[in-house]
Amino acid sequence: MLKSDPYGNYSELRPDNASIVWDLEQFTWSDEVWMKNRELGAAKDKPLSIYELHLGSWMRHELKLDEDGEPVTGSEFYNYREIAPKLAEYVKKLGYTHVELMPVMEHPLDESWGYQVTGYYAPTSRYGTPDDFMYFMNYMHEQGIGVILDWVPAHFPRDAHGLACFDGSCVYEHQDPRQGAHPHWGTLIYNYGRPQVTNFLIANALFWAKQYHADGIRMDAVASMLYLDYGKNDGEWVANIYGGHENLEAVDFLKHLNSIFKKEIRGGLLIAEESTAWPQITGSVKENGLGFDYKWNMGWMNDFTGYMQCDPYFRNQHYGELTFSMLYAYSEDFVLVFSHDEVVHGKSSMLLKMPGETYEEKAANLRTAYGFMYGHPGKKLLFMGQEFAQISEWNENEELPWNILEYPLHKNMQDYVKALNEFYRSHPAMYQKDFEPEGFEWINCTSAADNIVVFTRKTDKPEDTLLFVCNFAPVVHEKYQIGLPFAGRYKEIFNSDAKKFGGSGVGNSRVKAAKKEAFDGRDYSMLVDVPPMAMIVFSCEPAAPKKPAAPKKAAAKKTVEPKKAGTKTAEKKAATAKTAGTKKSAAAKKAAEK
Which fold has domain 438-542? Predict the structure, then answer.
């Protein structure tokens, strides 16, 4: 068999697959400022808004034809150098902090989106050379944008030129197919019990961070690594030494990888896509956690998407799906995601998931969904196309339908996501305490009949507090009473139903003062106009504490002491004694003279 070099740093364009030797030290980096400050920007109390994309279908050239009228292979793709300025300008315009690239490691099949990797050390030649990819990373950093790379340590394809049966025997995978194969995916599973295999993978993660300055690694399908019976029926898997279904070697591998990565890559992020309730995914390795920085919140994504897909008339029966996430919100450090997995394989686009007879009604639902997502604790991720309400499902063989931005509905949605990102980044309450219970408080999470939730996001400063009111029904509520966190003045500063976003324009133009009237278990409340199908946010200005009143000065009064009984007699005796004493002194004086 002819094999590609597992450590090859460049490859021929598919369908060819020979490895190409490339000098990785030719490129001159100029992103020192970004790399120096990266660790500070990666702190948990900083904003993190991620734009997930597939480079090959975000934007494309028109396909070139050869002399025979046949398409020229690969001519439809932008080079890394070409796409970098276009992507950076767009992402900065919309206010994202990071981009996340679906796998750019070399892979044979376009339709795998890069998740079936054959060249772990080679940026795919679809979009250019290793130097071109370094240019891309360098340019993004110079523009102040972080880059997270999707990475697949969970499985690899069976392609003959890849890692499968590498020397005629199972080098990278288990020999027993019950341990070494995913029956549903048709791929092979790494043997994490072999040091050579785990070293290959750990070195690879470090390679992308060191050689290409990647700011983070998002690991795909972590759940499939943790469970020996993942996607398998009885008899299709082998238990561990204790008779359980946990993959103990994979657990050790992840702990080791995350420990080494954090030690050597300052400011690098490690994100797990893990779809089960495995404990302490983001817990410290020293405390028996796996050591990731963040975990995709798949539970929230499934519950909330299910809730939003319900007709508003029936949402009151699914209210728990809206509020349940806060019961486990602090069990891990989460990223809230509407990822590529939600808009493929017949699931339809985010816009078409929404109920409504018209696109305008669907768009109102989607604006409310995005608004709730940004208000909910956790970092944020949206997949490309969702920011302008793409109608069709994502298709990896076509570029995004940019032409629909000519229509107001889609341009308004793009403007709305831009406004959301700007609002998110400029208000510390929306990100500073994402993973501390003190950063969030329900005001009302029991109004199932109205499909309304009210909550606050907070920092240590009361004046940073934000009050969110989310209405998931197409009904206007005039003079709707809500409880307040404290006395003060409340001003509406964001409204998803604003006319500039395509909404009806219902809102609260005047600043409102809290009234000393108990409601929602609070001492203070106010009446607001709640727009139909909308999320609105109020800033909170606490009332100034009242100064204590100065004590009143008492008027001066003459005090007349009452005379005690026998006073005159006492005075008379005192006078007599005084006279007697004087006479006695005079007599003594004369005697002395004699």
Answer: Immunoglobulin-like (2.60.40)
Residue 165: exposure state from Cβ atoms within 10 A (0-12, 13-18, ≥19): middle
Q: What is the mean pLDDT of residues 175-185?
A: 92
* DSSP secondary structure, 243-289, as one string: S-SB-HHHHHHHHHHHHHHHHHSTT-EEEE---S--TTTTS-GGGT-
Distance CA 267, CA 254 (A): 18
218 touches 340 (CB < 8 A): no
Tell me the residue ranges of DSSP E strands in 30-78: 49-53
Per residue in 157-168, pLDDT tens?
A: 999 999 999 999
Per residue in 382-434, pLDDT (tens digit) is 999 999 999 999 999 999 999 999 999 999 999 999 999 999 999 999 999 99
Element (H, E) at 481: strand 477-484
Matching CATH number, 1-37+47-64+72-296, of 3.30.565.10, 3.10.450.330, 3.20.20.80, 3.30.360.10: 3.20.20.80
- Catalytic pick among 273, 303, 333, 492: 273
| Mean pLDDT, all residues of the chain | 92
Give me the catalytic one of 132, 215, 220, 415: 220
CA distance 212 to 138: 8
User: Taking a C-beta distance cutoff of 8 angstroms, is the pair 76, 60 a contact?
Assistant: yes
| 341 in active site | no
Q: Whose structure tokens read 């206010």?
A: 95
Neighbours of 86 (CB within 10 A): 12
Tokens encoding 535: 């999320």
Cα–Cα distance, 331 to 494 (Å, whole number): 30
Distances (CA, A) of 546 to 487, 512, 523, 549, 550: 12, 19, 17, 9, 12
* 273 is an active site residue: yes
Distance in angstroms (rounded) separating the CA atoms of residues 557 and 359 = 83
Pairing of strands 379-383, 49-53: parallel
CA angle 438, 440, 441 (to 5 degrees): 100
pLDDT band per the 50, 70, 90 thresholds, residue 65: confident
At 337-348, the pLDDT tens digits run 999 999 999 999
Tens of pLDDT, residue by residue over 263-279, are: 999 999 999 999 999 99
CB 145 within 8 A of CB 96: yes
Is the bond into 85 cis (omega within 30 degrees of 0)? no
Q: Which token pair is 455? A: 């909550």
Is the pLDDT reported for residue 583 higher than 50?
A: no
Residue ranges of domains in the chain? 1-37+47-64+72-296, 438-542
